[in-house]
Amino acid sequence: MSNKVLKPKKASLYQFTQNYSNNIGNCIEFFKSMKWPGGFSCDRCGCHKYYLVKRVGKTKTSYVLECSSCHKQHSLLSGTIFQSCKLDLYKLLLGVFLFLNENKGISAINLCSILDVNHKTALLLENKCRILCH
């Protein structure tokens, strides 16, 4: 018997873009399942039903889940390491995907060019990904 440790197969960039690039619903579902693994539950009233609310700002579109009972709004990223992140959900997810699919992570310079963001934003995302890994 071999002493090799089997690593899980990494997802391809093609598969990732097929699943998430033109489908904001899949990005929302991904972050929703990470924040509420057992399904959405309002922390105010305990209700499991919600409406998806789209907020359009000057520079960013964000999405919140609004409880259908008490109408409290829950951000997908609040309470997570990404709560102050200004990137849209797809760019954020792509940055994390690219970082995790490299053995030692991806450099901020490479993230800069791939995500079309400034160096400071790429550096912040890279640091948050490093925190996630430790």
Q: What do the pLDDT scores average to?
A: 91
Number of strands: 3
Q: How much β-strand is present in the residues?
A: 5-15%
Instruction: Extract low-pLDDT stretches.
Output: none
Q: What separation lies between the terminal Cα atoms?
A: 31 Å
Radius of gyration computed on alpha carbons: 17 Å
Structural class, from helix and strand content? alpha+beta
Essential attributes:
134 residues; alpha+beta; three-stranded antiparallel beta sheet; 41% helix
Summarize the structure in short.
The protein is α+β, with helices and mostly antiparallel strands.
Structure explained in plain terms:
With 134 residues, this protein is an alpha+beta fold. The protein has one domain (14-133). The chain has helices at residues 13-20, 24-35, 89-100, 108-115, 119-133, and strands at 50-56, 61-67, 73-75. Strands 1-2-3 form a three-stranded antiparallel sheet, with no helix packed on it. Helix 1 (13-20) packs antiparallel against helix 3 (89-100) and helix 3 packs across helix 5. The chain is globular and about 45 Å long. The relative contact order is 0.12. The model has no long low-confidence stretch (mean pLDDT 91).
Topology:
Blueprint: H1 13-20, H2 24-35, E1 50-56, E2 61-67, E3 73-75, H3 89-100, H4 108-115, H5 119-133
Antiparallel strand pairs: 1-2, 2-3
Helix pairs in contact: 1-3, 3-5, 4-5
